[in-house]
Amino acid sequence: MLATCRIELQRILSLRPAFSVLILAACIYAALYPQPYRGEALRDVPIALVDLDGTDSSRQFARRVDASADVSIGAELPDEPSAEREVFGRQLYGILVIPKYFERDLLHGRPSPVALYADASYFLIYSRISGGVSAVAKTFGAEVETARLVAMHVDPAVAAAASDPMPLTTVPLFNPQGGYATYLLPAAFVLLLQQMLLIGVGLLGTLRNDGLAGSPAGALATVLGKLLAYLVLEAVVLPFYLIVLPYLYDIPRLGGPLIIFAVSLPFVLSVSALGMVVAALFRNPLTVQLVFAAIGIPFLFLAGFSWPTEAMPKALQYLALLVPSSSAINGIVSVSQLGAPLSDVRTPFLTLWALALFYGCLAVGLEVRMRRSHH
């Protein structure tokens, strides 16, 4: 088994395709993949302002919107058609229309609705614009109502409570900045590790294998030796992705290294064994690369972070259980980012061990069959 492990490690370093995927690609992805998300959250999304009222109140409301962190007034235009042209030209991403008689209606205590047209073709931009303008409108409306009640000789404290009877304080747990990188990157790192390991192991299983040709090792020892070699490799790559990169990019980290390694162990074993199974089934390096390239996107959607697992059909939920990353993302993100104890991730942890055993037995069976066919 140890001899097989040594030979497999030598093959990883000497075979260019395997070295490119397992080591070179790991370095390139680590350097490039997180870069687009470093801004964490969208800020100052530019929108057009059409102020049909032109009063102090409308200008004050527009200044408040422009001062918010989410939205900025990119242009003040005289009418809606000219604002629409800017949006259709993708120069701006929304239109805020302040109607005529905005101030008069406010002073008379009547509703004075403002209109917001936001570009929903990019949902992140849409949510920023609608959330930012809605928050400003709610605060501004409450202040106007409070001032109106105070002018009617209502006690200021009572007036403030009447205009905003249920103030809400939101606290974003585990993601203080409310950022996209904090949400996405920990799960994406697990998916990247899986894809690189699957393709690398698949290539190693299909490329010429002179070192093991005359080996006296049995099928079980061969599979275990290879799995040990992949564990040795991932003992270097995996901590870099799950501990060092989150530290470098200021992603919240509440879990210790030991518990992260405990959940990662069955993940690496199950992914490696699955790669060996696919390599034994297809036996062609190009086919293995095409298969894993084709199923990369389905693996992403089955993982449950781009679309909730609970919202998937039952058949897809069961299918997702066969993919190691689906359980690994739940387990590893929970223990590393959320600080969960091992008892809280018992289900994904045991699922990963079951997959490691299942794919490992399949790999041994296919190795036995392959040896018999050669004899």
TrEMBL record:
The keyword Glycoprotein does not apply. Gene3D superfamilies: abc type-2 transporter like domain. Signal peptide: none annotated. The chain crosses the membrane at residues 12-33, 183-207, 227-249, 258-282, 288-307, 350-368. GO terms for cellular component: plasma membrane. It is found in: Cell membrane. Keywords: Cell membrane, Membrane, Plasmid, Transmembrane, Transmembrane helix. This is Permease component of ABC transporter. It comes from Rhizobium johnstonii (strain DSM 114642 / LMG 32736 / 3841).
